[in-house]
């Protein structure tokens, strides 16, 4: 077993959350090392990129967390874009949630934040929408970012140009403790070597796989299958967020269609005939003519879910090991605030009242029995 020198911050997991946090520390002059088992499996490359605080119907602290993150995103993305020279496709395009009846509309948790659309206005907003939808809520404050093709790459580049070191193909097999202090990790490298990496502080951001490293984290995978279709440019201007399926239009007419929610999937790889069928039926239920638009790609990934569907952010019971995982359906939306909060927590910067509440609410301690 070989040894490496100390690193100020060790990031375990080079997915969306890991890269976001790595960037935050690196741009503040920290020495950062990212250990990444496999960048391609990261949910950051799978997500639809919706910034859907209100369209997702988030409630209570999670709603505030989303709103706060959404307010940080424009400045945060601008910084990533400047550092990487890659434009990320951030758009406040608005998201429309359609309803079949008024009761469902009025019971929607974020009803008060939306603009009511009657059927005529709904059809004006979404040309060609299926006539089964009688009402709609337009959340003009919600939007999207092109995480799959742009943000992930921009983060990688911005991190790298700010001095972050990456070890791709490096799987953390175990954490090395001395009493209750983390001193490093045992890592299986892409070359097959088993190495010990020492660290001063580490942040565990291994998404759906987090429990494999630290089994007190109750995170499990929820598989999502996706596909994309090529539509005419500018046909769809807003995201449509149906109860089972959503359509997210990119600038070049590509429409990202998601997603299945497979709670018992474990880590089963691949698209399935049923998954693709479900998405096709979903397209038909929202925008019938889009069923005939050519399908460009199928893919899948694993959302990091927790028993209460809320993230785990903050300290762990191990001194100098911090946690940022379990972002489930909204990791793209929550990435800005998560990286900001983790930086402040590790740095022991004084926190605002709302930030303290978030850390309390999203602490791992809530699962202690
Ligand atoms: C189908 C689907 C659609 C989604 N749509 C949206 C959306 O529209 N909007 C939104 O906000 N969110 C969305 N999400 C959620 C979002 O993608 C996730 O919440 C977010 O990507 C989680 O980021 P993460 O870094 O925690 O995990 P990931 O991005 O999955 O990264 C985890 C990384 O850790 C690495 N890793 C795992 N184990 C180890 C180990 N032992 N050693 C080293 N590295 C390790 C993995 O290889 C992986 O690269 C969606 C997710 C899915 C699956």
Written description of the protein model:
The model is unreliable at 1-6 (pLDDT under 50). The protein starts with a strand and ends in an 8-residue tail after the last helix. It has 2 domains: 2-82 and 148-219 and 308-367, FAD/NAD(P)-binding domain, CATH 3.50.50; 90-144 and 220-305, D-Amino Acid Oxidase, subunit A, domain 2 (D-Amino Acid Oxidase, Chain A, domain 2), CATH 3.30.9. By secondary structure, it is an alpha/beta fold. It is built from 9 helices and 19 strands. Bound molecules: flavin-adenine dinucleotide (FAD). Flavin-adenine dinucleotide binds at residues 12-18, 35-39, 41-44, 46-50, 171-172, 205-209, 213, 224, 226, 258-259, 301-304, 325, 327-333.
Short description:
It is built from nine helices and 19 strands.
Stated plainly, the CATH topology of the largest domain is called FAD/NAD(P)-binding domain
Oligomeric form:
single chain
CATH level 1 name of the largest domain: Alpha Beta
Q: What ions, cofactors and ligands are bound?
A: flavin-adenine dinucleotide
Question: What count of helical segments does DSSP give?
Answer: 9
At CATH's second level, what is the architecture of the largest domain?
Answer: 3-Layer(bba) Sandwich
Strand content: 25-35%
CATH superfamily of the largest domain: FAD/NAD(P)-binding domain
Mean pLDDT: 96
